[in-house]
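1st attempt posting a full record on here, be nice pls
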Amino acid sequence: MEPWIDYTLPSELVAQEPLRNRADARLMVIDRARASIKHHHIRDLPSLLGPGDRLVFNNTKVIPAGLRGVRTETGGRWQGLFLGTQGADWKIVCKTRGKLQPPESVTLHDREGRAALQLWLLEQLADGEWLARPDTQMAPLELLSQIGRVPLPPYIRGGNMVDSDTESYQTVFAKSPGAVAAPTAGLHFTHDLLRAMERSGVSFSAVTLHVGRGTFRPIDADDLDQHPMHTEWSELSATAANEINASRQRGERVIAVGTTVTRVLETVAALPSDNGTLTSWQGETDLFIRPPHAFQAMDALLTNFHFPRTTLLLLVQAFGGTELMQRAYQEAVQEEYRFYSFGDAMLIT
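the predicted structure (as tokens):
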């Protein structure tokens, strides 16, 4: 069966706000062996999971990478996204009316709309990126903490943050700064829920993958082999590798919380190994998981509902099966599940 990459979603099902209690999100439970679909809530996880199950989270932390300002000479509105550094300079993407002429100055505004500093656009790079230099010696993350905005995707309120987003668009286990989008499956968890699952005998491990802007890039190519797969920095620590190896050796389930965790685990599982176990690793991954991918490092997947024509939708099909995932998405629309970053989730076992 050919991969399924498109579906129609009513716009009203795209979640614009998080639930007051994250654990109240709905959870579609999909059993691959039985080809069955059942409906629960995230708060039911302590009874759905049990002794020996190991949840693997992504502990990346979303940085306030959204930039707003004006073109210094014309006053035209400008907005950008901080992607990282290259030496002493910044790598960004940006948009404005008209054509930018490097070297051109942008006046960055703080979150109150006040002029904060100048950012010089030096050189246009590939894939719409720019090399830029702020007129300050302040460390990028320190500066962004003062003037940056939560980098909400454009389908949530047009990308315009409110103060509560600084908490709601961050997982409770966020630790390692570097993401420009949240690992959304992790947004459902609360400290109380984690404690309840721990009492049920569930264990936890953490990996890191800094979610990049390419995660939402639509598939435009008719031939999937021609799709330019984005790269993201990730890490599997020796501690996490040992924990996951021990669980698998005992025949216990390893449950990836999100497509980002899946990408890390399957990247490392594909590395040469004497005995098929995971080892510590860090680096850039460009792994494109799509049917028919043979999964080696995980037994279940907890994930949100994904955009059509994206690599994330293909990853979920590779794990759950194309026909079953089509059924699941159709049922999610019929049952009016909430979609995308602030939306509901599915657990595929």
